[in-house]
Every structure is written in structure tokens, then in C-alpha cells.
Amino acid sequence: MVASVDDIQQIVQSAFIVMFSKTYCPYCSKLKALLQKLQLDARIVELDAIEDGRAMQNALSQVSQCNTVPQLFVGGKFVGGCDDVHRLHDSGKFLVLGASLTHTLDRSVTETVTRLLSMATSNDVLSTIDRDLIVVISGTYCPYCKKLKSLLSTLNLPAKVFEVDKVPNGDAVLDAVKQRSGCSTIPQLFLFGKFVGGCDDVHALHSKGRFLPLVEERRKAMASSSH
């Protein structure tokens, strides 16, 4: 039986995340690795491993207007290929997109997806804490957070900032960070995975001339870990 557009639509609607792939494709492997990292379950359709795979890809191209793989669908919507999804992820928009589409699902599936997105966002933040030199957990409404970010700006120290009132599932992110740091308030500043403290802690270190040397120490630790 030759695959049709209707067949593709049925597959796309069969799971919240559906990926059309080929087993030998490095870009497909890269996208699958990202989904695995984010702990997002997906239905994977390997076009080179099924009967009429070529016909299915032809029908798929009519749905997505894209002729290559991988192709990722979320909540029935075509998101893009490997580079598209990675760009969305790097800009913090991929999980937001997933969260915005959960309204199309029934309640039990929505709860599962929301839980997975919460886990994925938290894991992504924790991974960034372990990977980047300076990470700040902040809130746009918090005056102490603004004071800490102002100090970093004055010192010309770029930081990755997560605003817990803006990121998807911010409460879950904050809970995960609290477990890591043992601190229940914001802001929280990390230097290459090491919890330094909040606004007053960082200002106290800076006033004693110890903050910049600590930044440099952690920068060297980060450089040595990459070798």
C-alpha cells in the first residue's frame, strides 16, 4: 500500500513528538541525541527501515514542504529539521513551543507532557550550570537579582541568566536548583558548577577583592576540564 498524506497525518497525530528519520543519517542521530538529553519520548519513524519508505517520504514532503530528514513534529505541528530544533533549543524556545501545544491533548497526556517538559527544562538548566562559567538564577521582579546582575555588568562579566518567572516550568527549575545549592532564595550565582551565593555573598566577596580571583580560578578549572 502506497503511503498517502492522510497516512502521514495519522502518524503525526499518534504521539505528541514524532520524528521522521533514517538510520544512517548523522543529523537524525544528532536530533535523537538532543531529545534523549531532554528526556523527551518521541515516536521515531525510520524511513529506510520500513516498506514503502520512499513513498512515505514523498507524502511527508507534501505535509511539511521539506524534502530532507530528520523532520520533527510536536503536537501535530511541523517544527523543522535538526538545525531548526537546535536553534530553537539554544534560544530557549523549543520547550516553550512544546508547552504551548499541550492544550491540544487530553488531560492525562497533557499532565505527562508537562511533567516531561518540567524535567527537561530543569535538566537543561542544571547542565548549563555545570557547563558555563557564570550562571545566575534570577527573577525579573527581584531587586537583589537586579543588583547582582548590575555588578556583573559593571565588571564586564557575561553570564547566562535564567529568569525563573520567564522560563517554562520556572517553579520546577527553582526547586531543582535549590536542591543543588541548598539555598532557598534568589539570586543564586554559580561559577562553573560551584555555588557561590546570593547577592550579598557576591558583593561581600567583591568588596574584599576575592570575587574576581575566584572567577579566574573557576575559568582555569573549566579550561582544564575541556582538555
UniProtKB/TrEMBL annotation:
GO terms, biological process: cellular response to oxidative stress
Matches recorded under Gene3D superfamilies: Glutaredoxin
Provenance organism: Plasmodiophora brassicae
Name recorded for this polypeptide: Glutaredoxin domain-containing protein
GO molecular function: glutathione disulfide oxidoreductase activity
GO CC terms, sorted: cytoplasm
Classification via CDD domains: GRX_GRXh_1_2_like
Domain Glutaredoxin: 17-79, 134-196
InterPro entries per the UniProt record, alphabetical: Glutaredoxin, Glutaredoxin_euk/vir, Glutaredoxin_subgr, Thioredoxin-like_sf
